[in-house]
Amino acid sequence: MTALIIKEFKTLRTTLILVMGLSIAIAGYCIYEKTYFIIPIFCVFMPMIILGISLGYDFKSDFQQFLFTMPISKGSYVLSKLFYGFAFGLLGAGAVLIIFMHQGDVATKYIVFLAILTPIVSIFLSSIQLPFLLKFGGEKGRIIMTMNFLLIFAISGIIKEKTEFLENIAKQLSQYSITVIIIATMLIGIILIWITVMASIKVLKCKEF
């Protein structure tokens, strides 16, 4: 799988340089405007875009057809595509720790929870669109990716309006130990990611190369 990740860096070298420049610019803007919360959100959503670009290159070059003539498992290929979600998730977790620790108005246990939640969400959002992109290819995959973004923004808008509902959930969760909540969140996240990874592997097994 290491070789596949190195291949990703070489293939998307120009794209990743642009992403790095964009990330620095957005981080600088957020720090200047003191809208720090945008940084971890950016780290969560950016891997979805990079994943679509990466698979687009693979489809155009018939890389999958070439790859699976070698002794490389489909699972390794799928996991390599989630590397960006993992990497940006760690950056987002670091941003959460730095931002909230600096502000000092959030309890440490909740900061740790948000830091753990960030990479889980980042990986999951990439993994949930991966089987669709693998199934339908570049053109239809981009349509599905756009629909995913619209769905996520719609859900975000609904959540924003339902502040009372979220406050009630927060009150309910506050009755439990933060350690239990963190462990439960991690387990649920791992299970959901595992399901989507298995779905992606199944799609690849059903495809003819």
Note poorly predicted spans.
Answer: none
The largest sheet, given as strand count, sense and whether it forms a barrel, is:
none
Proportion of helical residues? over 70%
Mean pLDDT rating: 79
> Beta fraction of the residues?
under 5%
Contiguous helical run count: 9
Describe the model.
The protein has 209 residues and is mostly helical. Helix content is 88%, strand content 0%. It has nine helices and no strands. It starts with a helix and ends with a helix. 23% of the residues are buried.
Summarize the structure.
88% of the residues lie in helices and 0% in strands.
Structural key phrases:
single chain; 209 residues; mainly alpha; globular
Describe the protein's topology.
Layout: H1 2-11, H2 13-33, H3 38-61, H4 63-67, H5 74-81, H6 83-103, H7 108-161, H8 163-173, H9 178-206
